[in-house]
């Protein structure tokens, strides 16, 4: 086996105390998605949106990587082929666990984006509406997050990896949000085996040959050991 492609979602970060997108408590429950995760919401009330992501950035900074994150680091370090990690998460727990390159298809809390010139820089812990871009000086800073209605990052590279994958793994994703929910079909179309790790089968669970139910902190270390023992 030469290439494993792994997609992670909110479920793996939830075990580090970060609320999932559909959590009944926590930050997301206090706001409508339309108000804090769309370009229109940002245009209506930039203070609300920026403060929402400031709170998420603070929460993420206080979280620590869990055994699920660490298992993927172990796989990347010891697997003789290539391990590609794509995440829907905007935290940096994979990187802090020791993972190499992580493809953040939905952006990153630690990054700021200039809406005027597309320049990116490291976001301060607390952003403010109207912060100036360090490159063009426009008062157009925004969180570097892919909102609903925007195109996820690095899609061409992601589909190239899916075309080459011999094994595709999905960890802690709902299977409700596209295009990520279509990755398993794309990988299977190109001949990959597919395994899902979740607390319960996702909306696209029927497309996986192998489903491992339970916390990722428990199921991922066992799976990684299985892969490395082959």
Automatic annotation (TrEMBL):
Its cofactor is Zn(2+). Belongs to the sirtuin family. Class III subfamily. One of its GO terms (molecular function) is NAD+ binding. GO terms for cellular component: cytoplasm. 2 residues (Tyr-53 and Arg-56) present in a large hydrophobic pocket are probably involved in substrate specificity. They are important for desuccinylation activity, but dispensable for deacetylation activity. It is an enzyme of class 2 (transferase). NAD(+) binds at residues 9-28, 88-91, 172-174, 198-200, 216. Keywords: Cytoplasm, Metal-binding, NAD, Transferase, Zinc. Residues 1-230 form the Deacetylase sirtuin-type domain. HAMAP family: Sirtuin_ClassIII (MF_01121). It catalyses: N(6)-acetyl-L-lysyl-[protein] + NAD(+) + H2O = 2''-O-acetyl-ADP-D-ribose + nicotinamide + L-lysyl-[protein]; N(6)-succinyl-L-lysyl-[protein] + NAD(+) + H2O = 2''-O-succinyl-ADP-D-ribose + nicotinamide + L-lysyl-[protein]. Its EC number is 2.3.1.286. It comes from the Bacteria. It is found in: Cytoplasm. NAD-dependent lysine deacetylase and desuccinylase that specifically removes acetyl and succinyl groups on target proteins. Modulates the activities of several proteins which are inactive in their acylated form. Binds 1 zinc ion per subunit. It comes from Roseobacter ponti. Substrate binds at residues 53, 56. This is NAD-dependent protein deacylase. Zn(2+) binds at residues 114, 117, 133, 136. The active site is at residue 106. InterPro entries: DHS-like_NAD/FAD-binding_dom, NAD-dep_sirtuin_deacylases, Sirtuin, Sirtuin_cat_small_dom_sf, Sirtuin_class_III, Ssirtuin_cat_dom. The lineage of its organism: Bacteria, Pseudomonadati, Pseudomonadota, Alphaproteobacteria, Rhodobacterales.
């Amino acid at each position: 086996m030469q290439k494993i492609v792994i997609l992670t979602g909110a479920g793996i970060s939830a075990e580090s105390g970060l609320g999932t997108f559909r959590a009944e408590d926590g930050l997301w429950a206090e706001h409508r998605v339309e108000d804090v995760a769309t370009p229109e919401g940002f245009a209506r009330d930039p203070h609300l949106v920026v403060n929402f992501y400031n709170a998420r950035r603070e929460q993420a900074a206080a979280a620590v990587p869990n055994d699920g994150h660490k298992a993927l680091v172990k796989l990347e370090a010891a697997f003789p082929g290539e391990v590609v990690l794509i995440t829907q998460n905007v935290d940096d727990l994979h990187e802090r666990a020791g993972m190499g390159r992580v493809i953040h298809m939905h952006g990153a809390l630690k990054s700021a984006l200039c809406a005027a010139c597309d320049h990116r820089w490291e976001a301060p812990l607390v952003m403010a509406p109207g912060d100036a871009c360090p490159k063009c000086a426009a008062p157009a800073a925004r969180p570097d997050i892919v909102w609903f209605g925007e195109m996820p990052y690095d899609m061409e590279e992601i589909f190239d990896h899916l075309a080459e994958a011999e094994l595709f793994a999905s960890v802690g994703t709902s299977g409700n949000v596209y295009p990520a929910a279509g990755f398993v079909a794309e990988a299977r179309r190109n001949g990959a085996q597919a395994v899902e790790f979740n607390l319960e089968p996702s909306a696209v669970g029927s497309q996986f040959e192998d489903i491992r139910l339970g916390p990722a902190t428990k199921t991922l270390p066992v799976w990684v050991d299985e892969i490395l023992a082959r």
